[in-house]
Structure formats: C-alpha cells, structure tokens
Design brief:
Elements (H helix, E strand, L loop, with lengths): L1 H5 L2 H4 L6 H6 L4 E7 L2 E6 L2 E8 L3 H15 L19 E3 L2 E7 L4 E2 L5 H18 L6 H9 L9 H21 L5 H25 L3 H6 L4 E4 L8 E4 L2 E4 L6 E4 L1 H12 L6 H14 L4 H12 L2 H11 L7 H12 L2 H14 L3
Antiparallel strand pairs: 1-2, 2-3, 3-5, 4-5, 6-8, 7-10, 8-9
Helix pairs in contact: 4-5, 4-6, 5-11, 7-8, 7-13, 8-12, 8-14, 10-11, 10-12, 13-14
Length: about 350
C-alpha cells in the first residue's frame, strides 16, 4: 500500500491543498489521502477525488461532454464531476486546473481473474453502445473541432508509420551510444524483429476495409484508450470506468485491442482467453469480419516493445535503469507466445 500511495510523491507534492480551493466547490474537507496521482477527500458531502488536470480546459470539456452524453444513453458507471459554486466542473487555481469527482467504491480489476476479464469485456461494449451517435451531435462536433488530436479515426496507418520511424530513431541512438548498457544490447538484438512486425501490421491494415469502416455509422465511438486495471473498478459484479484523460474517437476495436493486450499477457497469450473477451463483447456489440481483420492488424503491432523503448529513450517515465531493464526483458520474453497467438487468430478467422 505504501508503494501505491507514495510512488508518485513528487507529482503529489505539486498539489495545492488550500481550503479556499475546496471552498470553490462548496466542500468542507476533513481529511486528504494520497493515492496514485490524486487525493481522496473526506468531505461533508461524502468521499471525493481531487485531481490536478495537466491538460487544457478545452480537453476537459471534451471529456465532460462525452461522459454526459454516455450517461444520458444508458451507461452511468463512469466518473461524475463535482460542480463548483459557479456551476463549472473545474477551478483554475494558481496556474493549475483542479477538478473534483465522486469517489467510486470498488476493487480494481484483476486481469489474472477470468471473471473480471469477462464482465469487463461486456462493460466495454456497453460503454461503446452508450457513445453511439456522439460524433453526430452538433455540440460534440464543436468540441472535436477544438480537440482534433482526440480523433484517431482514419489515422491508424499514419500512426503506425510514425511509431516505426521513432523506433528506427531509437535504434540509431542505441547504435551510436559508445557506452552501451544491457538495455541497449537487448533492444538492438530485438529491434529489427519488431520493426518487421510494424511493417506487417501496416500491410494488414492496408489490405483491410479500414477506411470504409471509419466512415460507417456505429463503428466509430468514444474509446477509453487507457484500460489499465486501476482505471476499472468492480463493485458487486458491476464495472465502473475511471480516468477518461486519454479518451479518443476511434473504431471500437481500438479499445478491444487495448484491453486484449493488457488481459491476455497474464494468460501467456492464450487464444481461448481472447475468444472469451470477444465472446462477451459481442453479446452486447457485434463485430463483423472486417472489424476483426482490423483488430488483427492492431494486435500485430508490437505495442509493448514500442512503448518500453519510447519510455526509455525519451525518459518519458522516471523509472530506474533496473525497472526499465526488467520490463524490457519481460516484454521480449512474450515473443514466442505472441507469435503463436497471432497465428492462431489468423487461422481461426481464415485471414
């Protein structure tokens, strides 16, 4: 518990826990408890979550508009913003932006628990159903115009090509490093294999019906885009989604891919676990063969290797060398299981 609470101590220390800030939300705060990158507030109106937002008000309003739409379309198991005295969902405060949300009770999803994975699969489908029609709303179109980077629909090949160039840049950095460490050596031993993976992924998407799918009604939805286990809470078999900071507009298989990548690693890339995810999702939301082909292309992209390489060579994460190295070793260790999984996927759907 100490590790979870205080590993983000440097970030939490930048919060301004001023009673006058809480007063803007008309709250009396009795206690504050740090957890990850937020504070739990014990208040006169129940337990709340204080969050310092590190993006623009336009982006926050994009998220809030999306959430409110989904709540009004039969899915309310998502975050609820506390309104200020001025009826806003945020307070600009000393060069920062703060918002407060209701605390959702529940335990974090465990990807090693097959039941959690199954009920979360259904909940993702329900979340997507709740956002159907959002992109046709005139009010939302205005939000999207201010947040063009939040729309990834139609940009997958462009995105994969960009990541391929980044990986090749990191390879150049590692190659030219005269004082190579173990991370560099392992990275260089494996990078060509993963570059080839990306090229293959791009080819699969190019040969799919990707661009037509992006134009079809119901295929493009609000995707959570950050389905980490701590953003999914389970309370009495009901699944709640937190933290829509990275929410985007994209094909619904984007979230299915994101969730699958996180869930099946705990099962050695077992194709049966994937079938379980798809089976539960499609009880709520049917996916056609064209979407599954795009999903295959997405899953073929080596996200794990790319992300650890990016985080290391750009120092996006403030981890120790040991943590980076251990994570790289674990991710390249998935290689054989991942290959078998992708081959089984291809054979099952006759791609």
């Amino acid at each position: 518990m100490v590790d979870v609470r205080y590993k983000d101590k440097a970030y939490l220390s930048k919060y301004d826990l001023d009673v006058n800030l809480f007063s803007e939300f008309d709250l009396a705060v009795y206690d504050v408890i740090p957890i990850r990158k937020v504070f739990i507030l014990n208040t006169d109106k129940g337990d709340k979550v204080l969050k310092k937002v590190n993006y623009s008000i336009d982006q926050l309003q994009f998220i809030n508009y999306s959430i409110e739409y989904i709540k009004n379309h039969n899915f309310d198991r998502i975050i609820e913003f506390e309104k200020t005295k001025a009826n806003l969902i945020y307070v600009p405060w000393k060069n920062d932006i703060y918002c407060i949300m209701d605390l959702v009770e529940g335990r974090e999803c465990e990807y090693s628990n097959p039941v959690d994975v199954m009920i979360t699969s259904r909940a993702i489908a329900q979340l997507h159903r709740g956002s159907e029609g959002l992109i046709d709303e005139e009010g939302f179109k205005l939000q999207l115009a201010k947040n063009k980077d939040r729309c990834l629909s139609g940009k997958l090949i462009e995105n994969f090509n960009k990541k391929l160039k980044e990986l090749m840049f990191y390879k150049n950095v590692a190659t030219q490093n005269e004082d190579k460490n173990e991370f560099d050596y392992i990275f260089l031993q494996n990078v060509k294999y993963y570059e080839d993976n990306i090229i293959q992924s791009i080819d699969i998407i190019k040969q799919s019906d990707y661009f037509n799918l992006c134009k079809e009604e119901g295929k493009t939805v609000l995707c959570h885009h950050d389905l980490a286990h701590h953003n999914i809470l389970i309370n009495k078999e009901e699944v709640y989604f937190l933290d829509f900071d990275y929410a985007i507009i994209d094909l619904r298989v984007h979230d299915v891919c994101n969730f699958t990548n996180k869930a099946i690693k705990d099962f050695c890339y077992d194709i049966e676990k994937f079938h379980s995810i798809i089976g539960e999702y499609t009880k709520i939301n049917q996916l056609d063969d064209r979407e599954l082909r795009v999903l295959y292309g997405m899953l073929s992209f080596p996200e794990d290797f790319y992300s650890i390489s990016r985080d290391y060579y750009t120092r996006k994460k403030q981890w120790s060398e040991e943590v980076f190295l251990n994570r790289l070793k674990r991710k390249v260790g998935y290689k054989e299981d991942r290959e078998k999984f992708l081959e089984a996927f291809k054979n099952y759907y006759n791609f």
